[in-house]
Structure formats: C-alpha cells, structure tokens
Amino acid sequence: MPYAQVDGARLYYEDAGGDAPPVILVHANVGNSQSWAEQVPMLTAAGLRPIAFDLRTHGRSQPEPGRETEGSIAGDIAALADVLGLERFYVVGTAYGAFGVLELGLQYPQRLRAMVVSTSFGGLTDPGFTAMRAQYVGDMSDWPEERKELGKTYRDANPDGVARFLAIHEQNPHPPKRQSLTAPNTLERLGGIKVPSLIIATDEDAYAPPPVMRAFADAIPGAEFTVIEGAGHSAYWEKPLEWNQAVVGFLKRY
C-alpha cells in the first residue's frame, strides 16, 4: 500500500497516476479516502489525476505516537505534494477537510491552480460570523451521525447508501483526532486568498447552510458560489453526479 512519509506521520494515499493535472481530494472528519469512491472514476474520465489520502488520524494513515495532532492539514497536503513531485495542483475539500484547503490557499497559493470548498463553515471564528451561523445552526449534540452528515432527502431514499457511508467512517479510529489551523480562520484572513475558488453549498446542510457559506464565499476575492438542491453536509456522496459536474466544470477552466 502506498504511504508518504511526512513530518510525524505516514499518510496513506491512492494516486490515479499519469500525466494529467493532479487533484488532491481532502475528506471530512467523518470518512476517509474511501469516501471519494464516486469522484475518482469521474475525475479520471474527465482527464484529471485524482489523489485521495487519509488525514493523519483517519483510515490507514499512521501518525507517530504522540504526534497525532501535530502540524496542520495544509502542511500535510503540501508535504504529500512534495513527496509526489507535484509542482502545481488542484485541491478539493469538504467539511473539516476544507478548513485545511482554505489555509492551503493562504499559505501556498503558488502551488494551486484552483481550489474547491464544499459544505463547510471553514472553521471561521469571527464573533459576527459565529453569531450569524447560530441563527441557522442549532444544537446537534444528540443527533445520530447520519442525520448530521446526510440530508433528509438522501436518508429517506437511500438506506443502503447511508449504511455504506457509516461503514467507511467505522474504519477510522474513534474519535479521530483533529489538527489545528496554524492561525484562526476569519473573514478578514480569507480576503487574502488569491486562488480561483469554487464554494459549494447545499440546501439541507445542517452544519453550513447556504447563507453561512455565502458569507465566507463573499469574503474570498472572485470566489464562485453554487448551491446543490436536495443534499446535506456530504453532497459529494449524496449527489455525486451534480457535485462532480460542478467541480469538474470549474477546475477545467483553470
């Protein structure tokens, strides 16, 4: 199995290979590289080179003892790209993984052709933003995982898909430990992103409904914004055709 040695961890990854433009896929806290099963074939068919990896405390990645939360998602992505010899690449992230994608856009803009942030509140900590988000996002502490992560439309129509989604997450250590951002994400900080960006929201996302994502999309200069209907926090899984088309259509312009 392929592993990339980065500072403090061996990251498991799967690389479609070839000379096509590379796309690094960054999964959510709930899930791992297997979560991209519906993306890898379509990205490959679209003439791209998908690279899916497990965050350092997820799936088959192997952090060194005591170093599970060291570094950052952005730093690990950059280190993985170095191991693979990638000078410039696309990056696509969802939910918690997208926290790191935003930071990557700030720290390594010269490495990125374009980036996509899907269904994520971005880890923003602005008091105003946090108060605005609280108007749309209630207490979910007693919700089961599937209700938090998947929209009602999908849960009602695809019980087998819900089971597959949860089975992938069960392969992670529990609970997966998180890496911190190197600096707090704020609307002002996101104003420094100069990378072409697509922000994807969904109408059934319990964590980051469209008004929340629109607020930080508006903070990123030139960012494009789209909403997928009938999907929740895991739109890439729930509505893969629509999600893939939005992502590929955007990336192919850069």
Task: Give an overview of the whole structure.
The model has no long low-confidence stretch (mean pLDDT 96). It is globular and about 45 Å long. Strands 1, 2, 3, 4, 5, 6, 7, 8 and 9 form a nine-stranded mixed β-sheet that branches. The longest helix has 13 residues. The chain has 254 residues and is of the alpha/beta class. It has one domain: 3-Layer(aba) Sandwich (Rossmann fold). It starts with a strand and ends with a helix. Helix 2 packs across helix 3. The chain is built from eleven helices and nine strands.
Q: Which outline best applies? A: globular
Order of helices and strands: EEEHEEHEHEHHHHHEHEHH
- Segments where pLDDT lies below 50 for 5+ residues? none
Distance between the termini: 31 Å
Q: What Rg, in angstroms, do the CA atoms define?
A: 17 Å
**Largest beta-sheet details:** 9 strands, mixed
How large is the share of residues in beta strands?
Answer: 15-25%
Helix content: 25-40%
What do we call the CATH topology? Answer: Rossmann fold
What top-tier CATH class fits best? Alpha Beta
User: Which architecture would the CATH scheme give at its second level?
Assistant: 3-Layer(aba) Sandwich
Give me the number of helical elements.
11
